[in-house]
Amino acid sequence: MGDDDIYLCVVNDQSVQINPARSTGRSHPILNSQFPINDMAWRLEDGVTQCSFRRNIQLPEYSERFDLDRQYYIFLADGKAVNGRIHKHDQQPLITQGKVNLQGSPKELKGSRSPGYIKAHGSLMFIAWITTANIGVIVARFFKSVWPTTTMFGQKIWFQVHRILMAATVLFTCIGFILPFLYRGGWSHFAGVHPYFGCMILILVILQPIMAIFRPNPCAARRYLFNWLHWATGTFARIIAVGSIFLGMDLPALDLRNPWDTLVMVGFIVWHVAAELILEAHNYIITSKARKREEDKLEIMDSSELIDPQGHRLKMMILTIYICGNLTFLITLLVGISLT
Fold first, then answer.
1. Are 99 and 73 in contact (CB under 8 A)?
2. What's the distance, Cα to Cα, between the start and end of the chain in Å?
3. Whole-prediction pTM value?
């Protein structure tokens, strides 16, 4: 808010004071009791405050006042008042979906507390760090042996799936990073550490494809250094992203409903960790079987999973169930954003 035509309805004891006001930038509204408003009325009932008044459509003698023969967005902000003095509202104002014709007939207005830029930002980050990044990591970590020779466009299918999903993660993160700056017009000093986490995540996701471009040959002596650095960078980015999501969900510009947003994210984390633990346990069991067969001097192939085709089917079943659950959590959070 800033440089707006403001009308205050302030509850003071058991009465309501109705005053016009004016703000410059993000400063505290300045009352203007000399400004003429008529037919003032108010009502307090069941914790709901209602107030009404009349004013002329045009006020040429008050240049700071808007002419009401034009269309405007309406902001409705609420917060606490002490001894008749208002304090900063603790949540984003409710903003009409479009400009309103104030001379038109009365009608029910619809609005949102979250601007479109911020909704898009949250949606893109959810898609990137709940779905595309995590599925891409699981495929690369656990499914190399499931598709050892199957190719797509000249590359192994697991690698292509991993590359496509991680490229989507980078794209969604970069676009999502820009949107809050477009909305705020610069850096936000009211978002706590959330934007700092965002900067760290952006740096890490840009480093990942750069490292991948210059990765050494799989047979190179120092390939293990790339593997560890690639894993560590990606894991650190995912951890920071989860923390950033928890912080961002409760910022005033988005402010998803508590406590369901936190419960959904906790549920997703449990779901993802459980899937990785199950796949890790499955890998351990298959590897143990392969080692036992090796000890018995039975012929084994490079991929321990090829000894047990049942392992392929189980892994695919786990992946399918995981993706269904992952998408359920994602859709729930996206619906929550649409309802803000």
1. yes
2. 18
3. 0.80
